[in-house]
Amino acid sequence: MMKTSGFTLLEIVVVVGIVAVLGTLSLVSFSNSRKVRDLTTTGQNVLSVLQAARAKAAAGEEGSQWGVHVDASQVVLFRGALYSASTSTTAYTLPSTIEIVSIDLAGGHDAVFKRIDGSTKENGSFVVRVKGSSTQTFPVAVDPDGNSYLAGTAPAPVGARIVDARHRAFALGWSIKTATTLTLNFNDSSVIDSIPMAGYFNADKSAFDWSGTVAVSGLNQALRIHATSLSDATTTLSVDHDCRRNNQKLDIAIDGQDIATFVADCKSVSLGTSGGVMSEP
Fold first, then answer.
1. Are both 97 and 188 inside the same structural domain?
2. The CATH number of the domain where 149 resides is what?
3. How many domains is the chain built from?
4. Are residues 95 and 69 in the same domain?
5. Domain that holds residue 122
6. Nearest CA among 38, 34, 43 for reference residue 139
7. Using an 8 Å Cβ cutoff, are 77 and 49 in contact?
8. End-to-end CA distance of the chain, in Å?
9. Using one digit for the tens of pLDDT, what is the confidence trace for 177-209?
10. Best CA proximity match to 101, nearest among 30, 154, 46, 53
């Protein structure tokens, strides 16, 4: 007697099980690939918002500083020095699969970029990631010059600002930690700006960073003076003095100690008696 060919119940159950497993794996793979795409796209969009804020500030758009507020589900471009609903101009909401964690922009959630040079005191970092994942991440860094980038791919330092003959570094040979007043003397005392230094040191006075503008003869002179190295014994002071933003003679002193004189012809810098050793950064 011949047996009827066909599948047993067990064989059918096994085949159905295999198909179900393959289908589940395909769905998981598709879901993961979508999350990776969301992560990459979101990371780039977040960088675009940060870079837009810096560009607006550097251009002096609307005569204001510009900033970005970062929270778990969105980044917000805003105008001015403080974030609020009334100052926000553009909000980018993250996809439901993505979140932002470990936000530390100088201890807060906002990065504000200064006019003219686009620098920020709210440098730091945060992590864009697939929700709940410790491996699928897009870490973002913001440096003091206002550059934002995927952490680990920082631009070369010289690219963070415009370089010309007016940028100088000064190895002072003495420390500015106890100094109180930065003096900018334009055109042999036609305009003198005495700047209290206390507000421009960090908490332990291991860093100093001032930038701003001073109106001289109807024109804004814009510069940045910051310590690239600062200890109890010595200081390396950097002066960023772009020819296109400065056309007046300038003497720089700290607590009455002469650092340097930048002449108005945009061609030379004279070392002051307390300026130590001068170099091009």
1. no
2. 3.55.40.10
3. 2
4. yes
5. 33-156
6. 43
7. yes
8. 98
9. 999 999 999 887 788 899 999 989 999 999 999
10. 46
Return the residue matching tokens 């070369």.
156
Indicate whether 6 belongs to any domain: no
The C-alpha atoms of residue 258 and residue 163 are separated, in whole angstroms, by 24
pLDDT tens-digit map of 40-85: 888 888 988 998 898 888 877 888 899 999 999 999 999 999 998 8
Model pTM score = 0.48
Q: Which two tokens stand for residue 104?
A: 């530390």
Residues 172 and 273 in one domain: yes
Is there a single domain that holds both residue 146 and residue 168? Answer: no
Give yes or no: residues 84 and 142 share one domain: yes
